[in-house]
Amino acid sequence: MWYCSRLFIKLGLRYKKLKIMKKHLIYTAIALLLAAFSFSACKKDNKDNTNDGSLFKNTNWTGAFNYAGKGPEPVSIEFIEGGQLVWRELLADHTGSWKITGNQVAIGLDGFPSFKGDISGNSLTNIQSSDMSGRSLKSAVLNTDAIPELNGTVWGAANVSLKFKAGSVVDLIFGPPSGLPTYTNLPYVRNGRAIHFDAAPGYNWFTVITSTSAMQGTNHAPSDPTVYGFQVTKQ
Fold first, then answer.
1. DSSP secondary structure string for all residues of the chain
2. Along the 235 residues of the chain, how does pLDDT read in single tens digits?
């Protein structure tokens, strides 16, 4: 009887020990699974939060910006492989630089830091502006639309229209395309998606081709600080 009791006690202890070991094995397995899942998630996040720059190399981005206290203006940004860029706006073209860090791009103009933005798909979000000239970048998107030929095309709206003619000249109409031109045969300069021309000394016009059928533009009249924006569509 005494022997049986010891045997039962031993068996009970062994069973208890095996039960504890089984529980530890289960906990260990769960911990390993959680660690593997966490590592996989971190690896995926790191992959999602990095960009090798291919989205920017030799591409054109279009968007809008404004100077402090002024209205919005269109901009064309040409990113060049090697970290250089050209920023095209109404007042002038500016050279600059770009650099990718993680999932953020930093843009500098004329040798100074100007903007930082998060890369979200084919656009920039959470844009921070620190431009020395007071520019604030509001939007920027990768533009992959084909750049249309301008000769012989008409782009119009109710308040302003443009008739592009051979020889890199344009007629400017204050009204729909059916109206008579206010200014004729104005020489224009086109660089990529950006077009500059002057209607008169100090009367500067600028447009950006935002798609195969639309342009976003602005103009500054002499002695008038107001920024006049417009949009025209291909007729």
1. -HHHHHHHHHHHHHHHHHHHHHHHHHHHHHHHHHHHHHHHHHHHHHHHT---STTTTTEEEEEEEEETTS--EEEEEEEETTTEEEEE-SS-EEEEEEEEETTEEEEEETTEEEEEEEEETTEEEEEEE--TT-EEEEEEEE--SPPPP-TT-EEE-SS-EEEEETTTEEEEESSSTTSPPSEEEEEEEEETTEEEEEEETTEEEEEEEEETTEEEEEEE-TT----EEEEEEE-
2. 434 444 344 434 454 544 555 555 455 545 554 444 444 444 444 444 456 688 999 999 999 999 999 999 999 999 999 999 999 999 999 999 999 999 999 999 999 999 999 999 999 999 999 999 999 999 999 999 999 999 999 999 999 999 999 999 999 999 999 999 999 999 999 999 999 999 999 999 999 999 999 999 999 998 888 999 999 999 9
Cα radius of gyration rounded to whole Å, the chain:
31
The CA angle 157-74-188, to the nearest 5 degrees, is 70
- pTM here is 0.78
Q: Which residues contact 25 (CB under 8 A, 6 or more apart)?
A: none
Closest CA to 216 of 227, 203, 232: 232
